Amino acid sequence: MRFASIGLPAASRSPNSIDPEGGFTLLETLTALAILSIALVGLFDAHALGLRGATAADHHAEARMLAQSLMADAAGGNHERVVPRRGTEGRFAWTIEVQPVKADWGQLKSEAGWELNHVRVSVTWDANRSVQLDTFKLGHKL
Length: 142
Prior knowledge:
The structure is a single chain. The chain is of the alpha+beta class. The chain has one domain. 35% of the residues lie in helices and 27% in strands. The chain has 1 helix and 4 strands; from the N terminus they run αββββ. The chain has one helix spanning 26-75; strands at residues 85-89, 92-100, 114-125, 129-140. A 4-stranded antiparallel β-sheet has the order 1-2-3-4. Strand 3 and strand 4 (129-140) form a beta hairpin. The longest helix has 50 residues, at 26-75. It is rod-shaped and about 105 Å long. The termini are far apart.
């Protein structure tokens, strides 16, 4: 038998080959299945790790949005005083802390009783995860 385009003899199995039927042996099949199972275990583990990372990133983004919302509500607007408080929202626990600034640069001379307050919003979840935002707000003395 020859290839029509280049005239070389076609490659074929010799008539004295080990497997004259042209199939796979049991050992070859088991080896292929073992390699495939090892590869699939690695792929499944990588997928699970990626899914855990995506879930953690999603929780962090939710906590950050909640903290930003609480900060905007507490320190935004024309409130004369920011009130410390705490609460829960789904899986998140949050606190708003307000303390007057004690540093020299934060001291104001005001006859109307104004002071600079440090406002901190903390959102925690899963016992060891947290997001914390800080800002300053001008308000009346407590």
